[in-house]
């Protein structure tokens, strides 16, 4: 399967640099990188909160918080189960 490049990349202020912007433009990727030292209120905070909240929900499962599995496929199975449980609880909280 051939890899595809994203149309755009969104990151926070820590990733902004002139060289990085040029490298992304040369590859045909639009950089959405707020400049350092500016008060740029983009929607990145809302997207980041969703990701951080989901990671926090996954950390409630001990097997995912403390990874002691040697095999990556077993860890992936527990991650999948954790995501299934989170979706199940979110979609119908009356069942839990």
Structure description:
The protein has 96 residues and is mainly alpha-helical. It has a domain at 44-95. Helix content is 50%, strand content 6%. It contains 4 helices and 2 strands; from the N terminus they run E-H-E-H-H-H. A two-stranded parallel sheet has the order 1-2. Strand 1, helix 1 (18-26) and strand 2 (30-32) form a beta-alpha-beta unit.
Q: Briefly, what is this?
A:
This protein is mainly alpha-helical and 96 residues long.
Describe the secondary structure blueprint for this structure.
Elements: E1 8-10, H1 18-26, E2 30-32, H2 44-58, H3 62-65, H4 72-91
Parallel strand pairs: 1-2
Give the terminus-to-terminus CA distance.
40 Å
Helix content: 40-55%
Task: Report Rg.
Answer: 18 Å
Question: Segments where pLDDT lies below 50 for 5+ residues?
Answer: none
Q: Mean pLDDT across all residues, rounded?
A: 78
Number of strands: 2
The shape, in one word, is: elongated
H/I helix tally: 4
| Strand ordering within the main sheet | 1-2
Main sheet overview: 2 strands, parallel
Order of helices and strands: EHEHHH
Strand content: 5-15%
The assigned structural class equals: mainly alpha
What key phrases describe this protein's structure?
mainly alpha; elongated; 4 helices; 96 residues; 2 strands
